[in-house]
Input
Amino acid sequence: MEVKNPYTHHIIINALMRGGILPDEVCQNLSEWVKVGYNTCFDCLEGRSSLCHKPPVKKHLENIASFFGGDAAEHTFGCRGAQFAVMRTVAEFVIENEDYCPTIIIDPNSHYSTNIAAEMCGLVTIEPPHSGYPEYLYDPQDFQKKINEVKEREGKLPGLVVVTHADPYYGNIAPVEEIGRICEGYEVPMLVNAAYTGGLLPIDMRQMKVDFLTLSAHKSMMSVAPLGYVVTNHKWSKLLFATSEAKPAWSGRRFGKKIPNIFGCSIGGLPLISSMLSFDRVKERVKHWSEEMAKINKFIDDLEEIEGIMLLGQRPHQHHLLHFETPKFWEISQHHRKKGFFLAEEMIKRGIVGLHRGMAKHIKFSVYGLSPEEINKVKEAFYEIGKI
Amino acid sequence: MSDTVRAYLGMKDKVVGIKINPAEDGLHPKEPAWFCQLVKEAAVKGVEYVIDVTDLACPNADITLGFRQPKYVEIEPRIKEEVERVRIGKSEESDLVLLCLNAEQVMTLSIFLGGITSSCKGEMGVCGEAVAATYNQQKPHFTFLCNGARLMGGFKKNEILVAIPLPGFEQLNQRIENLTKTGGALCGCQVSDIPKEVVKAFSEAGFEKGADYFFGKIDEQQVRIYLNKDDTGRIRQITLYLPIKGEGVVPNPPFQAKVRGNWTDLYAVFDIDALGISLYTGKNMDTVFKALVNKAKGGKYGG
Output
């Protein structure tokens, strides 16, 4: 079976990928690590990758926690693994603490993995509403209403509030600090899912007043997949990162260094090495977020020159994920022999990859981190296709 | 094809195809056996047999399957054409397939098939109520089986057998593939739960469904329609949006203007009941929307 990447020379505009693209020098350095799967385990002494000193995983996790304004961090099997760890912690917390119930409040633009993690942990989810078309914004006060609703109905506080920092549908930046203040007032723990932002723009979870931050290294931190991080404060780290207490009855073995919420010893290998190698670049690039956004908003204006094409979500836009409604392309698809697939394929022909195949009514993509020449090429490609 | 259905339903046993009078002969059972016994063996082990009347050890299957005609009393259901041999095994090129299921799996299947109707008497379950009835009527049947199938055939007490004509099984497979490929949406997640009847009604009024709203043109004006949900998730209101490039648009009440980037949205929210339209049938939609857009356009367009 031939396994080849046909897009090595294409401009990538997939919004999931743009923030995760590795710097060239990291790709080169990775070559010395690729031969062995368990490449973080050569000098492991304590039986958990997050405790390794060589390579300095422990130090790296301290740096991650500090960079995002937290006290402790662990690496996870992607951001979904991080969310699962938090949800599982909360599921146990509400059993132990009679002031809280297993109902949690999740924003209405959440990534599906948030809802799946809650489902896996037996947590009941409720949502405040969003404003609908065309901005899909929500009001922090609606979180307060939902907290009160739960309190009235259950006689207990919700176990958790989850807010997606930048949502995966419209790229809206959530009002996390306002919601954080509300949660702090009620003493309801709060999780911010920063999969689409952590590593791209400055984040301080203390300032946000949140207890948990979940991150995606391969989405937004220039890393090989799958890798995520969960960051928390001292108050929650004891529960979230509690080590195993299991003792099988016959053998009497113990696994005291392993953390059950992250499946014992979390993912090591190439993803973790790549993230460690990229982290200095990540720290540097977040300083240039406003420059990136100026470039992106200019691109939005240019693309809206095509008849009927309009950005959905916040204006001015504050994130690199762009969701355009594209009735013009949909009209073309109606008489094109490839139907809705024509758009992605026309882009690929022009050396640009990343639009979801089959979609022509709406498109989501990103030009984050592209050079002005590359952005221009993307724009011109859309202009050309609009004339088909 | 069988694997798709098995995986979706979570079937332990294999799908068994039945071909009446196959063109080619094949492996016969080592010794005469009950028809239901051979079906169960095919379902569990994946074996394939071609049988004739000499391979059958049960008292009724030779009649229900059409190998012999009844002499003194009518037996129903039975295949009335003359049958020389029957293939039990692969689903490809078969006449019908048999699925050994539990009650929950039959429920799921009946949703996909748009209902299954059967009459069960607890007699000749596999050969008659499943195979003969389905072959004769060319529609799916289920059977709660018979004592013979449980005593001799090896079917368990909670098992139900469903028979589906091959074309129906191919359609079932396609439906499951479509659903599992997309999760109900091209990109894997549905972002709205607008009922399909509503989508159809809007389509007939000239509007295409976007992510969770409708888009179209009225008198060359781009129009968007969003169905507003109240706190309980019920759709009570709709919002009409007319996105207009530029600023300086003066709205005509009840429309309001909101500037959003390079656009000005003329928009108004309406109670669905007050508009006298039906989202489900499309009643009055086109005339009401046209009147509202004309009203909005009564204002001054700057832009």
